[in-house]
Amino acid sequence: MTEIERTHNEAMEAAWRGDLPAEAVRASFEASFCGAEGDFKGWWEDANGTREVFPIHAPIWQAVGLAHVRERRAEEGVWISIRGDITPEGCTFTRNWDERRYFGTHQGAPVVPPKNQKKIYPNDEAWLEEFTIGQRRTPEHLPSWIAGSKLEDQGQVFDPNGAVPEQLAAVASTAPWGEWIRDFTLAMERFVEGQRGMVRGLREPADSLEFESMSEIIADNVPGIFFDELKQKPLAELFAAWATLSGSSVASFAPSGTIAEALDAHDERAEKAFAEVTNHLDDAVEALVEARVIRS
Length: 296
Fold this sequence. Notes:
Helix content: 40-55%
Shape: elongated
Strand order of the largest sheet: 3-2-1-4-5
Strand content: 5-15%
Largest sheet: 5 strands, antiparallel
Number of helices: 11
Radius of gyration: 25 Å
């Protein structure tokens, strides 16, 4: 358990106990979230075993909602649901990051889907939006029930040989910049593969909130992935790219080995070159997304 989870557990327990009747000796609730919507189910039980429905009230809902938002993880997003249990022995909270939940009052909710498939909510579309736009989970952290679902072919999203944004125009026709820009575009393609919500947002107008959000997600994630791949390139390529960017002569460098080897050895010239080259590309990512996304 992390420190922030421990803090939220204390806040949720205080709000919950303050809302329960004095005669409650056992209680349980589960709160589930998808996008801006949520579902809450709870009950309490007295010493005689008489069980009553526990309706949602503001204090516990606010405490749970705050925990849901603040416990977000960089790659895993936020948890899907949380279960609270009070017994004579104490209070516990269990977070669910991967199991699907179904909103509604049908039997077995929220764990079991309704018998009428048309009444399933949140549906696949809603969960896809939640994981790719709302939570911004990375592909490897998508639940198996959504990552493995049958999605329509999204088609090619980016043109690896497409337009070059102004920020990269001066270097794009030189080696190795042309190849690197193409490889970066292919890295963007791999990142959005299978993420229907992201693809839909990218195909919105460039001045739309949806497009801007998806572009930001790519700018936050793809550079790190690509730069790790870039480190395996020959060091000579890095100095050639740096020479083009800085206007210096390649002849003044006689590098050998890979970029990674030079960085591991704390080669000052390699560190300076890598920082300037990657910063230049990093600054142009959102413009490159707009220039190379295929909307038709």
